[in-house]
Amino acid sequence: MLVVGAAGKTGRAVTSALAARDVQVRAALHSAARSGEAYAAGARSVAVVDLTTGSGLDEALVGVDAVYHLAPNVHPDEVGIARRVAKAAVRAGVERFAFHSVLHPDDTSMPHHLRKAEAEEVVRAVVPTATVLRPAAYHQNLLGAAMAGSMAVPYSLDAPFSNVDLGDLAEVAAEALTTAGHEGRTHELAGPEVLSVRDQAAVAAQVLGRRVEAIRIDIEAWSAGPGAGLDRQARADLLAMFASYDRSGLVGDPSVLADLLGRRPRTWADALRPS
After folding, report:
1. pLDDT one-digit tens code per residue, 8-33
2. Fewest CB atoms less than 10 Å from the CB: which of 74, 90, 188, 234?
């Protein structure tokens, strides 16, 4: 099984979930320098692939029967990458294909969401049986900040979110890639509770037994700090996302995730507690 984008936190989580099912995972990476991370997550082999040209894709897919495709975050060529990977999967005779999209890809206020929507259409056209996963934001995105006692974000502290646990997303991905019944389906994966960052900080303080602050930082500070190293397109995409979050957060239907897992999904409090 090939996991495209296996070096990031999502790719590593999906790799681990598949490895837990005794699936032999090949990790598709942009650079061999990150092979150690892929092997640590449970990959059995590594393939170096250039997603912007497709170089290495055909070789990476030799002997593969399923693909999990996750594009680099806010990549400007999301659609082209999806087309290259999907077509290569068809050439290789892959049996199952899962595409990692995003919750509410048709939200016109966020350009990178719209690219996901277009990529979904491309994948469906090339691989009609593909499974599409549309996850909400992860608990893990702010977990480290909560543990450190300061959750700083460049949008409203009261905006609502139905965040999903990364481990739950990975479990659903592994299920979709290893069992029948997910072909041609789209799964919206939202967490079981709606919380703002202010709510999350309060829950974290209670669970951890210490003070956890929720802090709103201004856009200029973000642009000069965390956003400084991004290219212009990525920075613009994220600024549009923050503006959208500021207006309405990101909330989805929690029932699908629970049905797919066959259990209660992990809450923010669960994520804060040691496994």
Report:
1. 999 999 999 999 999 999 999 999 99
2. 90
